[in-house]
Amino acid sequence: MATLKDAVARKPVLATIRLIVPAGAARPAPPVGPALGFYRLNLMAFCKDFNARTQKYKAETPMQVTLTAYKDSTFEFVVKSPSVAWFLKKAAGVETASGRPGHAVVSSLTLRHVFKIAKLKQADPFCKHMPLDALCKSIIGTANSMGIEIVKDMGN
Amino acid sequence: MKRKASRCLKPHTRQLKDFLANGCRSNLGAPLRAEPSIFGARVERAAEMLPLVRPRPGRAAPLRRLCRRLLSSAQTPPPPSSPRSISNRTSPLLLLLSARPSPFRAGGSGPASRAAGGAWRGVSSCARARAVGVGDEAASSSPSAGYDFSSPYLSVRIRCRKEDAEVLSEALLCFGATSVSVDDIAAAGNLDEISITSTFAHGEDVGSSVSNAASSAGLEYSPVYETSVGKQCDWVSVVQETYESTKVIDGLWVIPKWRTPPDPQAINIIINPGLAFGTGEHPTTKLCLLLLRETIEGGEHFLDYGTGTGVLGIAALKMGAVLSTGIDIDPQAVTSACENMMLNGIGSDKMLVYLVPTNAQTACFPSNIDESEENKSTSDLELKSSRGSYDVVAANILLNPLLELVEDIVGYAKPGGIVAVSGILTEQVPKVEEAYSRYLENISVLEIGGWACLRGSRRA
After folding, report:
1. pLDDT at B366 over 60
2. B244-270: buried (b, 16+ CB within 10 Å) or exposed (e) per residue?
């Protein structure tokens, strides 16, 4: 799997597709089906490839995938970790974020949680260069927009 | 008449809503509760369809009976003839109700939510054809039986400024879109605005998702969008057209059923790709086919563990094996394998296909298309008793199942028999080798394009 940068330089790009697919459970059904089928990409190859590469994650975690489809019906894809919002919801143990962020607080987390999430995100190919504190700040920002309060101490 | 129908239907609306809500995500309950009238109207329309099949005085009665019958029969395989005998118009109802027992995979949204929309959205020819398939899905306890081919999804085309496309697509994903596609930005030329396409699960509130996404992305304007309903059948057939004949090695080809073999002298395996895995193009399929070529000399019994389209089983027979057995947890795969058997002119005396439950333990259910009742119980025993008798066993699945099911897979091979596992990346080989070295000796690994196939012979 070549890096996306060389790939873009080499071949004409047809489209960029972003998906959320549960780890190890890609099927030709939606969301994979319509999105890839529209560009006539080989669904089964993607499913097999994606499932094999996400075997190391816990089953069913929603991974973010970015696919680049080329004009010759080939494609490449990058698997990224789930969204920060999903991590926060899981850590806080809530199903949905607050409907009125800023006013209604749904749950609260400590800086320790934020730090752990930042470490996980740093393992992502796209965030490797970001310093940890910048990642933490952006996670705190997301948490605020979801109505999850961050308590500023390293509790457990 | 209308008044009477809606009065009779209310309790059943609740019944249907309840059992739909039980299996669905929490936020699906909201639209149902908020708009009971729409749901009621849809159920009404469905009930109007029923009397065409079974004319009865009370419109609600057939619906209730249908609900109960399908719910109770959910655990046992419904006889294949019944979905076909009921007319086209009720098959959407069957899809709705039989989708319930299959556990909801998060490949998109719960099938019931899509089925709820799908049931009322008119009947496409796919619904008719797939009624049998979905009936099988309801019967199996496999969690992978989550496809619902006639149910629609929402496809939304949104226009926005070029520079906002990236941010907006990220935001849409956070607010409920299941996928977002952006056509190549460079190709848009000098246009300020481009379109992005997004798919949503049926029943989602597109308007609020889009506006939330737009405000979260920091757009000052509210993007214009239009929603359309897409049906699965459309793209499935489109993708099928792209399959080409594949040459695995000199003298061995895998041909999609609508193409002619370029080399009539070679061993040609004809496959209808469909929705099961194994078209011959993937490196893992090629690895397994190469391995078969090396090991099959004639007269072997072969087991294809995780058969998909049945390509490996069929190949083994064409190379000289005497009997092939294919097992899979996905009913879609079993259907596909049976079809491909027939395409290659192989009868059930040479190849058997079984549907096994996901825990892959003792009980197995055969589902040949031409099965007869009396064969069922004998076939269960046949598969169980065939453990430890296969000369060659191939398992082309995924790392985690391979690690979990080591004993099951190796158990099918006879002592000294060849066991081959694939579907693993090169970096995953050490783990597999470690797990399998307890049971296999003479382990060797073959690799193509980052994928690996590990083979060994069972220790006595």
Report:
1. no
2. ebbbbeeebbbbbeeeeeeeeebbbbb
Non-local (6+) Cβ contacts of B99 within 8 A are: B111, B112, B114, B115, B134, B137, B138, B148
Cis, peptide link before residue A31, omega less than 30° from 0: yes
For residue A86, give the chain B residue with the closest CA: B174
Task: State the nearest Cα–Cα gap between A39 and chain B, in angstroms.
Answer: 9
Top pLDDT among A154 and B414 is at B414
Q: CA–CA separation, B40 vs B48, rounded Å?
A: 12
Look at residue B378 in the predicted model and tell me its pLDDT.
52
Tell me which chain A residues have a C-beta less than 8 angstroms from the C-beta of B398. Answer: 24, 51-52, 55
Run of H or E residues at A109? strand A107-110
Q: B239 to chain A nearest CA, in Å?
A: 5
Q: What is the pTM of this model?
A: 0.65
pLDDT per residue as tens digits for the range B292-331: 888 888 888 999 998 888 889 999 998 888 999 998 888 8
Host H or E run for residue B118: helix B111-120
* HEC assignment per residue over B138-204: HHCCCCCCCCCCCCEEEEEEEEEEHHHHHHHHHHHHHCCEEEEEEECCHHHCCCCEEEEEEEECCCC
For A3-156, where are the alpha helices, taking DSSP H only?
Answer: 4-10, 32-38, 43-53, 84-92, 111-122, 132-146
Report the range of poorest mean pLDDT among A141-150, B33-42, B389-398, B441-450: B33-42
> Which of A27-36, B57-66, B118-127, B438-447 ranks highest by mean pLDDT?
B438-447
Cβ-in-10-Å burial (0-12, 13-18, 19+) of B32 comes to: buried
